[in-house]
Amino acid sequence: MVERVHPGRPHGDPDLAGAGARRVEPGQMQDVGAAELLVHDRFHEAILGAAEPGGQSAARFRGTVSGGCQTRPMTERWAVAAEDGGGALLAPLGRDGTPAGPVVAEPDLVEAVRSRPDVVRWVWRSTAEIYPRLLAAGVRVERCYDIECAELLLLGHAGRLGEPRSAAAALARLDNGPVPPDPPARSAEPGAQSSLFEPSSGTGVPFEGLLRVYADQLRRHDTAEHPDRMRLLTASESAGMLVAAEMHRAGLPWRADVHQELLNGLLGERYAGGGEPRRLAELADEVSAAFGRRVRPDLPADVVKAFTQAGIPVKSTRRWELEGLDHPAVEPLIAYKKLYRIWTAHGWSWLQDWVREGRFRPEYQPGGTVSGRWTTNGGGALQIPKVIRQAVVADEGWRLVVADADQMEPRVLAAISRDRSLMEVAGHDGDLYKALSDRAFSGDREHAKLALLGAVYGQTSGDGLKNLAALRRRFPLAVAYVDDAARAGEEGRVVRTWLGRTSPPVALAGQDEEAGIPQEDPEDDRGAGAGSGGGTARARGRFTRNFVVQGSAADWALLLLAALRRTLFEQGLRAQLVFFQHDEVIVHCPAEETAAVAEAIRAAGELAGRTAFGETPVRFPFTTAVVERYSDAK
């Protein structure tokens, strides 16, 4: 049974916004008065703590953070570095990032952190190096500053994405020395200790050098296009690293016995020697029989060749292309591909490797894509088939609170474009596409959806072009925002998300189809010629058009996670954040906490919207379900 939760719409938080507070747009902090600066600081404090040192807001209110009529001291900031043998070096930091006291050597890293509960933001080289050790010992850190995360963001902001981002590389650049390459990415080892437990050896960064890198990063934040936004991005990315480590530690509840039953029912018996299970073998025989010769359905080239020989030229074996073909091999081939994916990605080997003691513990990679979306290092956590989600079962007496952000990216476009008409449409908790269709598409929801997603993802031919024209008439600022981003990409310029994450100079492959919209035929691009009007330029334009929206949505999601993490802890709940992908979160909690968790998610989404984009009418609602099985939430 699915229990739907519909939290009430917020009526505003006077402690955060204040009566009559004017709208504050992040990135324009230097141009507004002290009251507006204070409002932004209080949003920021509510999620991530005090603003980073060096910002105008931090300088103006140095020493206190307001809370109504009371004031309290600014939180402490300490640097810590792991030493060989389990020890640590520590130092308190001043506002410029330099030591504000002597460097202290402690024999035990965990005890060094545990014994300083008043330190709210720890500055360290890498969350992956230190935080899992603390979690294993039961030590939770409220906030951190991840130097290597910050370096990656700052390099990107300077148009130098792709250069080594390690602390050692940053120090070498400071000293005008040879820059060492980043160590190769470590693959996760299923069934073994996660590579989140990154060794400290080989980093080659003395503690004094680490502090110099940190101080330099503070200065570089000051010179960013929008310093306040960039500081917020770095703080939220660092918070995301804490969330990733905690989700790995908690694990997603997983019933191995249910998974086994599902595989047996879907795939049939396993054959000795690791060959294809019975059902796949049967489907492969059906495909071969349809072609009249032996065909390997697991080899796309073999399938394409077979169709060509049958007089049906195809470019790929993608499902959307196969479904349009009239041939007896299509049905068993599509069925084979679906089951083959389950067998190879989430089959018996996966179950043996990745599920331990009733938990699946993927290794999350915050900012794993250039747009800021998360990835995982192995395990396929972000591609769990719906049928396999039946194995994700809450513990006895517990529930899964599954929350999907409703039409997140169109709402983000409304917020970042400042298009008043689109913000008005996005200012309600209901179906955004339905509201859009009533405004501009004569009530045709499907056309409204395709128009808006086409504007974001670059579908600008055929019906997409007609829909875009209708959208442009009603929402000119929103369409102009993504059009400008596309033009920048076509001209070889970089673009930024709202908080400042910067695109690479050249678009990466595979981004165009993330929305599930069929893209323009590559043949059309190849015929367009070279140069700024050619296929490469058009592909860059589609990428940057999408980047500013998808990346800004990732900015919002980071703040959502940070706010939710903090709320669950401060309310003393036993609830655990156990899963996140793009626009969906799962919290595992006792049954009696479900209402509080659902409300915490709703409030976190609204607070994240205000923190990222300022006071806009845009709402960020969720469809929230309380279930025992993940599969029941959809």
TrEMBL record:
InterPro entries, A to Z: DNA-dir_DNA_pol_A_palm_dom, DNA/RNA_pol_sf, DNA_polymerase_A
**Catalytic activity annotated for this protein?**
DNA(n) + a 2'-deoxyribonucleoside 5'-triphosphate = DNA(n+1) + diphosphate
Name this polypeptide is given: DNA-directed DNA polymerase
Q: Where is the composition biased (Basic and acidic residues)?
A: 1-14
**SUPFAM superfamilies (UniProt xref):** DNA/RNA polymerases
Q: Which EC numbers characterise this protein's activity in its record? A: 2.7.7.7
Give the span(s) annotated as Disordered: 1-21, 173-203, 506-537
Q: Name one Pfam family in it.
A: DNA_pol_A
What class does this enzyme belong to in the EC scheme?
A: transferase
Which CDD domains does this chain map to? DNA_pol_A (cd06444)
Task: Enumerate composition-biased segments (Acidic residues).
Answer: 511-524
**What are the DNA-directed DNA polymerase family A palm domain coordinates in residue numbering?**
385-593
